Amino acid sequence: MKDKALRALIVDDDFYCRSYLQEILHPYAYCDIAVNGDEAIFAFRRAWSENKPYDLICLDLVMPEIDGHKALREIRAIEKEMGLAKDKQVKIIITTVLDNSKETHDAFFLGGATSFLVKPIDENMLLAELRKLGIIEASPQTT
């Protein structure tokens, strides 16, 4: 894939986490930012209305206003309303400090998350996950 051919939405209420994820993803994707689930849902809808849907959403679970669980369920409901096949849905990676089986279970089985990474996010682990999901092919330095 070409550099910056992808579109990503980073959703986190912590400035440092948003900045760090943006730094990692910047060579691969255009990145938009949201600070809570309400903004994430708005950005997701807007991207579709502009015919520029996101390829990836990095979504924190614990946020003010609307949390990540509710935002995840709402995004998946919007996709269902649009009639999107599962393979056409946005890849959503949960990025959270919560490392327990209930949170993992809820995000995957109730919310429809694609993947789950525990903070602090490791750059190599995130990039490996993106490759595994087919979001990126190789590092931008490699031709």
TrEMBL record:
Superkingdom in the source lineage: Bacteria
The stretch of residues making up the signal peptide is none
Residues that bear 4-aspartylphosphate: D60
Q: Which Pfam families match?
A: Response_reg
- The chain positions of domain Response regulatory read 7-134
- Which SUPFAM superfamilies would you find in this protein's record? CheY-like (SSF52172)
Biological process terms in GO annotation = phosphorelay signal transduction system
Gene Ontology MF: a single term: DNA binding
For this UniProt record, the keywords arranged alphabetically read as follows: DNA-binding, Phosphoprotein
Its name, as the record gives it, is CheY-like receiver domain and winged-helix DNA-binding domain containing response regulator
Q: Give the originating organism.
A: Desulfocurvibacter africanus PCS
